[in-house]
Amino acid sequence: MMRRALFLFAALLSAAPTVSYSDIRNLEKSFDRRIANHNVEQPMDLIGFTRGAYLESYGVVFTAEVNLLLSAGVSPFRPKVAPEERTRLRQRKLARLPEMKQIMRDMMVSSATALKSMPPAQKVAVGVSFFYHSFEDTQGLPQQLLMEASRQTLTDFESGRLSLQQLESAMQVREF
Asked: 20 to 30 A Cα–Cα from 125, which one of 2, 15, 35, 65?
């Protein structure tokens, strides 16, 4: 009997903690608000809603699709976009990339802090796919931006044990 009780206790200790869907849902909504409220004078456009998933052997992953800057498309009333307007739009979107990276990094840190039941070695990942109109010059603009870091790294940054430079060197950032 004692042996069975010890086995059950050991099994409970070795069970991986889970992340609840309500925790994921709250973080999805938080990311949506961050994007929508970032700059109300020159808003980014969140296309659809952020989606999150917890993968027990990996961690948590959030994905979203964003237009870095609202702009009018081609229409019967505006059949062409002037070259100088295309250039200006590209430059403005390039300038927006660091802002998007900041939003994503902040999302990762707040997710790591909120998901206390997730093991510290597991990852928090955020992937953003970018929307572009067919007329846009996308040279130098990524189609997708992915960021990931361990929950431990992110909580160490939040608590002041890591500097911003240390955090950025520990994060994996990929642009496609």
From this structure: 15
